Amino acid sequence: MARAVVDSLRRLITHFWKSMRCCSNRRHAEELLGCFGIYDSASRTLDTKMNEHVLKEFYIPKYIIVPDSIVEELDRPPSSPVVVFINSKSGGQLGGDLLQTYRQLLSESQVIDLGQEAPDKVLYRLYANLERLKSNGDILAAEIENKLRLIVAGGDGTAGWLLGVVSDLKLSRPPPIATVPLGTGNNLPFSFGWGKKNPGTDRQSVEHFLYQVMNAREMKIDSWHIIMRMRAPKEGSCDPIAPLELPHSLHAFHRVSDTDSLNVEGYDTFRGGFWNYFSMGMDAQVSYAFHSERKLHPEKFKNQLVNQSTYAKLGCTQGWFCASLFHPSSRNIAQLAKVKILKRHGLWEELHIPRSIRSIVCLNLPSFSGGLNPWGTPHHIKARNRDLTPPYVDDGLLEVVGFRDAWHGLVLLAPNGHGTRLAQAHRIRFEFHKGAADHTYMRIDGEPWKQPLPENDDTVVVEISHLGQVNMLATPSCISKSIHDPSTPPSASGHHDDDEASAEESDDESGEERRKFGAADTFRIPEDVDIAHFS
Taking Cα atoms as reference points, which of 354, 289, 367, 338 lies closest to residue 463? Predict the structure, then answer.
């Protein structure tokens, strides 16, 4: 009787172990098997061989990635070939450890250290080589190009860097991208089901992630174009870039339409793009304080938990929780800028901003500040009355949300909590004129900067418009919603068509500026910048 029970347990645990082959919790099954004398060295050898067989599905021969390498024949094309980009300085030591593990499992040529080589150089070289090989009749090259998937490990800034480069390649079939959460907020990975906690760097964790990439579904998300125009400061080296600590996703742009009212001597134009959010005000001020502290003392920011606790402390010291006492009303959004959204027929309409709002967020994804959803899901009656929709990531609309202070932000932790819903728009403009404040703080996708404001009769303009879409990879636990989901109401998919048409008609003169991010320049980290400071 006892022997029968043991045999049954053995069969049960063996079945459990087989089902856990690609899971990070497999070691628990192995320990149980070891107790029954089942999982021995022979089992480990068999398991390793099976893993190596699965890993071949991700393998790309060196000659595909590095031109003029020796041609390597494969038995059959890989089903899920990947190129991995890792910010080796993200997550303290995690980035470096992850780099080593991926290179052990795959090949060194298909695992790129972003501290050594920028993604635009790698991808331009890869696709140029693929075209050359295909023209020579290489069938494997065609198969790999068709099935290629990209993995990027780093913070939201690192992920945005790669997304910008892929956007600018203008490929007929752009590769979908999976994101490994190595930053502090990790809003991009969380939005698509990859988690927000820093991952394990051991072999089993990486194998599990690769298995998820193989089975992930493709999902489109909107990309957003941002243009900022301001008078060049009189002091400092500012030809053509003003001496601002701008994020790496913004760069100086020389072409300005002749009909533009700001196209006069002494003005600089910056442009770039984002995928998650643009924010302005007190939340960006706290973020700026965090990034400044990390630049001064990088040794103190070695893991996600320490980073998050430091961020919370800075929120207190910056007065975010006592904004009415520490934050002058002259820095409230309504006192800083006129906010306009483009309505139908190309007409700009001024958006009413309550005077108490100290922070405004233009949100594309349902994750902000480490997993919070400021927009929430509007009640269907209120949504219908205000012409609002649920937040889709591919509907060409930004959700515009306001916050009074940190206490207001804490309502996001409650069920159905949300900020002050101001509008949904596919194009929004901020116009800053002379006021009591001489600067404000802005942030795009986790990268903050301190923005000087006009001193005289000048105008600083920040304009955001819909640009296009990129392909992401999503797991079954993805929280982002698409207008193409079967459960989406039919009316949602056509919400902004008229608006976009009017936008194109009303701004033909600036079409050159909106044609691309220029991401090969926009998202290239300068040689003198330490990517440890890049989220």
Answer: 338
Locate 173 and state its tokens: 């079939």
Report pLDDT digits (tens) over 382-414: 656 567 888 899 999 999 998 876 544 454 444
d(CA 68, CA 75): 21
Cα 18 from Cα 14, distance rounded (Å) = 6
Q: Is 65 exposed, middle or buried (0-12, 13-18, 19+ CB in 10 A)?
A: buried
Q: Give the integer Cα–Cα distance in Å for 290 and 449.
A: 11
Pairing of strands 217-231, 460-474: antiparallel
Range list of H helices, 117-177:
119-135, 139-147, 156-169
Taking only the tens place, the pLDDT of each residue in 201-249 is 999 999 999 999 999 999 999 999 998 887 665 544 333 334 456 776 7
Backbone angles phi, psi at 466, to 5 degrees: -70, 135
Is residue 283 within 8 A of residue 361, CB to CB? The reply is yes
Q: Which of 38-47 are b and which e, b meaning 16 or more Cβ less than 10 Å from the residue's Cβ?
A: bbeeeeeeeb
At 60, list the tokens.
């790309």
Question: What does residue 343 show for φ and ψ, rounded to 5 degrees?
Answer: -100, -170
Residue entry with tokens 């932790």: 413
**415 compared with 219, residue with greater pLDDT:** 219
In the chain, the amino acid numbered 220 is K
- Kindly write down the DSSP assignment for every residue of 246-273, as one continuous string: --TTEEEE----TT-TT-STTEEEEEEE
HSE-up of 492 (CA within 13 Å, CB side)? 21
Helix (H) or strand (E) holding 10: helix 2-19
- Give the single-character DSSP code of 352: P
CA angle 101, 103, 109 (to 5 degrees): 160
Q: Is the dihedral of CA 357, 432, 222, 448 positive or negative?
A: negative
- Inter-CA distances, 273 with 167, 253, 270, 383, 468, Å: 10, 13, 11, 29, 11
Tokens representing 431 are 């116009």
The strand pairing partners of 372, in sequence order, are 368
Which of 310, 183, 295 is closest to 533 using CA atoms? 295
Question: Among residues 53, 37, 4, which one has the least CA distance to residue 14?
Answer: 37
Rounded distance between C-alpha atoms, residue 248 and residue 255, angstroms: 19
Nearest to 178 by CA among 200, 162, 198, 164: 162
Which residue do the tokens 């879409």 mark?
469
358 DSSP 8-state letter? -
- How confident is residue 379, by pLDDT bands cut at 50, 70 and 90? low
